[in-house]
Specification:
five-stranded parallel beta sheet, about 25% helix, binds 2-acetamido-2-deoxy-beta-D-glucopyranose, about 375 residues, about 15% strand, alpha/beta, six-stranded parallel beta sheet, Rossmann fold, 2 domains
Length: about 375
């Protein structure tokens, strides 16, 4: 089942703050390196948070590289992702980049600078795609936001693409489900009033799956309200209001893979002002995206019972509970989602890099 990540509702309004950030990053990078090796001495100063912030990535070469050209690039989107039509954005409004010309009209296929193919819409077409004529300079971009567990036939995509675009940090074009933004000045965060214990919103309920089994164990020890198909009804526009009343939110991923941290964390938990209890990749992986004291990981506990006990204690200890929100004085979670924004990330990337020869040889080996 595809998740429902990119509805118009969540299309982020990104401010062009990356320039400032790059500067800040370099100013702090040295102190951060020291800090990273001395993590136990962490304080709550803004520079301590740099590692969780998105950076201009190494993929783009030097962060100071000038734009490749002023020519307007044409990007052909091979299919609407999952058939979902959306309105292309003017990328210059989202990123510090010239606009690209986007089209889904395939008569551009011999003229486009790049072609974005969404895995779930093309995975059966490997052979046909391999036979298509293509311009020597044209770059094909493999795009996927689903986890490897929900990405069939990856082998058919080997030796076909020039660039990868996914939630994986080591993608050529990194398209995270969410990221943190540094506030220009510290701001107190007010925690929404809490009247309930634990919430979980789940649409793809698979009995016997790891997360359902964990939930079944957990609910023996602590009340958990489950929303979604087959459970308590919840409409999208009531999501934040509903979840914000809970002390904790189960941000349980449907499968465990490196960097696969989805809107369940960013949108459902963090944007609702609750503490995420995460089940997904290991804690170290989450800590590449978030401060360690912003979430609770199920792996931190020997059993669901022990986790439940910790949650009970925390909910009764206001001061300790509030500590999970201290980072919010400096950082704001923003949703990285919206198809229009993701394709603009490709536009941004292409404007900044030379079209040198590059092939993704074995996608199925990398995307696991
Ligand atoms: C993009 O810019 C053009 C020209 O300024 C404008 O006509 C168009 O409505 C804009 N599109 C969006 C989605 O904002
Ligand atoms: C696609 O582009 C071609 C060439 O520019 C044009 O003739 C055709 O009408 C376009 N098709 C659609 C559906 O817009
Ligand atoms: C893109 O990948 C294809 C298929 O592997 C390859 O033939 C082509 O030369 C590559 N193009 C560039 C610009 O790297
Ligand atoms: C890709 O990697 C997998 C796993 O190592 C291997 O089984 C397969 O043969 C490789 N395929 C190609 C085309 O290199």
């Amino acid at each position: 089942m595809p998740t429902d990540p990119f509805t118009e509702l969540w299309e982020g309004k990104k401010i062009s703050w990356k320039k400032l950030l790059t500067f800040l990053l370099f100013s702090f990078i040295f102190s951060f390196c020291l800090f990273a090796s001395l993590r136990q001495f962490r304080t709550n100063e803004p520079e301590d948070y740099n590692s969780y912030l998105p950076t201009e990535r190494s993929q783009t070469g030097s962060t100071c590289a000038p734009p490749k050209s002023e020519r307007r690039l044409t990007i052909l989107l091979w299919t609407w992702p999952f058939g979902h039509r959306f309105t292309f954005s003017n990328c210059s409004e989202l990123f510090d980049t010239p606009d690209c010309h986007f089209t889904t009209n395939r008569s551009w296929s011999q003229k486009a600078d790049a072609v974005i193919m969404h895995h779930r819409d093309v995975y059966g077409d490997g052979e046909r795609l391999a036979r298509l004529p293509r311009l020597p300079s044209q770059r094909w971009i493999w795009f996927n936001m689903e986890s490897p567990s929900h990405s069939p036939n990856l082998g058919a995509m080997n030796h076909l693409f020039n660039l990868t675009m996914s939630y994986r940090r080591d993608s050529d074009i990194f398209t995270p489900y969410g990221e943190l933004q540094l506030l220009s000045q510290p701001q107190p965060f007010s925690i929404p009033p809490k009247t309930k214990m634990v919430a979980w919103v789940v649409s793809n309920w698979r009995p016997g799956s790891h997360r359902v089994k964990y939930y079944e164990e957990l609910k023996k020890h602590i009340p958990v309200d489950v929303y979604g198909r087959h459970h308590l009804p919840l409409s999208m526009d009531m999501l934040h209001q509903t979840v914000s009343q809970y002390n904790f939110y189960l941000a349980f991923e449907n499968s465990q893979h490196e960097d696969y941290i989805t809107e369940k964390l960013w949108r459902n938990a963090l944007s609702s002002g609750t503490i995420p209890v995460v089940l997904g990749p290991p804690r170290e992986n989450y800590e590449h995206f978030l401060p360690p004291d912003s979430f609770i990981h199920v792996d931190d506990f020997a059993s669901a019972g022990e986790l439940a006990q910790y949650l009970q204690e925390l909910s009764r200890d206001t001061e300790r509970y509030q500590r999970y929100f201290q980072w919010r004085k400096w950082l704001k979670p923003v949703l990285g989602i919206g198809w229009a924004m993701q394709v603009c990330r490709a536009c941004h990337f292409l404007q900044r890099t030379e079209a040198s020869y590059h092939v993704v040889p074995n996608l199925s080996k990398w995307f696991v």
